RNA sequence: GCCUCUGUGGCGGAACUGGUAUACGCGUACGCUUUAGGAGCGUAUCCCGUAAGGGUUGGAGGUUCAAAUCCUCCCAGAGGCACCA
């Protein structure tokens, strides 16, 4: 020890981080050999979409939490693969590029560089030899392949549909991307448009998506959300004859209900304005009522309803159709509608139920027609009040109320017993539902049906920045009724050998509001030949939804081609690495003139993933991400995986064995967003305090699944703790003899042994931190390590820079230890173990300290952070002949050390503190020996001896004594 | 409206299956150290009370020897779904 201001009194994060990033890359620390791995563990974090100003601290929070878990698994002996990539293809990136007026291709190059630089800095164990960027042609080639496979397997179709149109993003949106009738991305109100679009038949997997979800090891929050989104409902279709006032039948009308039990209480029927029957019953042409395709009875009905009524009805229908969805909902409880003049006949009791048209009934759900049971449905009740329709009670709720239903509170929907319902009287609701279904089916009036809320996935986008949909349309073939799929004449997939359909660089990439994709203005793109007849044909000019890109990326990571070809590849972050096939290539090569690189690539790659590697590494063992993707990305990924499985391409049907939903970082009480101006950029903090301190701080803010609150002052506190650990470790390292490097096997050789207190505390910490890591309670794990450091500092009793002999009692230092004080109280192997449990949280600092410990590097020169000693063996000085053993290799990195074991014997105290209660209130604590702490008599005896206890027992009779061995004794008086 | 989750000091948060509420950290105050700044070190810090003692986990009840934890109702906040029949 010297008093000189040597480097070790301050942790220099910047220099040390840089040094280890290089060193780790040099030895390929974080690139597991996927082919030979014995215990594969695929630890995946959702890849970010580089849309805006860069990675923010919320991203870093998410990545760090996932990374710590991966590092822990690695120390437990798993071969952990932790990849990273960018989801930079699609509307979010394009919108940002449009906003700042930069071409999306150029923007992608820039954001990739920025993001990868930032992602390097956060200290995650990403395997930088295997990245995936969704906009790279070598990736989206396979996204397009997935599309063609969907088509080939009949899961993809084209249909004219009422779609969600975002007037601001100028594109259609999937149902899942519409939140509160607004665009998920930009927040603008969504309009409805009739457009021809591509769909994936995700509904074909509705039941499987639901059934599988029950057995997934996923955050329940997410499973609940998925279940709700799938929205399975078991009900019944009931068909009613539609009759005139005089009872002449004119048509049939089918209604959907989940509550047929209340059918005796039905007093009206309502259909949506868009219902086909509306058009069948009334036409616009004449101002007189027209009844289409019905019997003579119907013809006679003509005269009974005058033209004015018809006009009124048609007006209402027109008006409803023009309303936006939000208008319809906004009118809310105030029901509107119009009577048709017709009736439905309820077969149960022969009642004629007036038939209305109202826009509270949704055309898109069920059959677009419902049975009005105002006594037992709140909307029906509101409608009945509005139109003065009869209200009948058919259920007696548990409250026993049997009076006529006249107030909304009386409308009871869930439970009770049937009444006024013929054969159902006295039967509980649940039972009655089944009974009624059977009855209706028997009578031939009804048919059991299962419906789902889940809709087919609208996959096409009229935008530029996405994978062109790899389809070709041939008019000639269409006329001849020829095509790849019978149901879709004229349509052909682009042959595999011609994928990718490269997205050309065009300058007029801005979306128009005509619903036509930018590529549609480029003949050189869309003109092609028909794979069927060889004649002239056109390419599809829409691109696919971003969520298709991310629906299969986890399959790609382990198989990224360059790794399968062998040879180590080195990341060059400064050059903003792009793949063999990148934008430069695309820019140079026009679409119609594919470069030789592309053809070469195609020849050598015929499948998107390596089957052996995939079998070994998938499904993903642990997937971490935000809960906001509960029904978007996670549902689509599951669907695509199921489809790939059913086509025989993979042997599992769920992509993620475990899914963990992390919380969000908030600042000043609000979620971070640029609109609120509270976004924190991690770069500045990393520069100021180091990545380790920021990692620790973020994880310390709260439980990982609940998120945390970012505060600058608390960040400084964590930076102080990092310094404290550094000083403590350096002081201990310097107190070991130079000839006394870390020898894990035989601690008796050490000149300094830990005091019993320190040793005990360490083993407790090992246990607790390990348990907390498994549960991802990072905040309490860090607290445990802080407590441990506090104990060590207390034990040392002397300040780091004033090596006064500390007052020690002899028994604190294990026999054989050096008790000259003021130097350190941890044995070198104990220090090593402490560094190991801290390593997942603070990977840089712990590596530096661990290597110093191994090498016994204590003198000024070696202690200099930039000394770089561990990487070489050419240092001068007295230690030169032993230095070869200190060369840094993968296997002696702290991150490849086994997670330390704790000694259960050290967790047990010699004495125990027992809480003494009188009538459940704590009155005292007594300390007894370990052995007697579990013996009732002994504990009771010492408890009664306590003054404070005696005081409270005085003059009272003890009725009962509760004894919890080793913990507590309670006198009941 | 329905579903899920969350309410603990000035603040972020601890408390595994009911068993010593407020660990750990931030902040604050005082002191030591430092040329200064910063940093470091020490002490204190839920509330009332000089003390003995009493009170306290959003609110009100309940179960129990014992409740932050279990049950019922209510209040507040976050997220998801939503005229879904």
Secondary structure elements and pairings:
Elements: H1 13-26, E1 40-45, H2 57-75, E2 79-81, E3 84-86, H3 91-100, H4 104-121, E4 131-133, H5 137-152, E5 156-166, E6 171-173, E7 178-179, E8 182-183, E9 191-200, H6 206-213, E10 217-218, H7 220-230, E11 233-243, E12 249-257, E13 268-271, H8 276-281, H9 296-301, H10 307-322, H11 325-330, E14 338-345, E15 352-357, E16 369-372, H12 378-387, E17 395-396, E18 417-418, H13 429-443, E19 446-451, E20 457-458, E21 460-461, E22 471-473, H14 475-479, E23 491-493, H15 523-526, E24 527-529, E25 536-539, E26 543-544, H16 546-549, H17 553-556, H18 561-564, H19 583-588, H20 596-604, H21 611-617, E27 622-626, H22 633-646, E28 658-662, E29 665-667, E30 670-671, H23 682-689, H24 691-700, E31 708-709, H25 712-735, H26 756-775, H27 778-796, H28 828-838, H29 843-855, H30 860-863, H31 904-907, E32 911-918, E33 921-929, H32 936-945, H33 947-953, E34 960-964, E35 968-972
Parallel strand pairs: 1-2, 1-27, 3-4, 10-28, 13-15, 27-28, 29-31, 32-35
Antiparallel strand pairs: 5-6, 5-9, 7-8, 9-20, 11-12, 11-14, 11-19, 13-16, 14-15, 17-18, 21-26, 22-23, 22-25, 24-25, 29-30, 32-33, 34-35
The protein binds one RNA strand of 85 nucleotides through helix 7, strand 12, strand 16, helix 12 and strand 31.
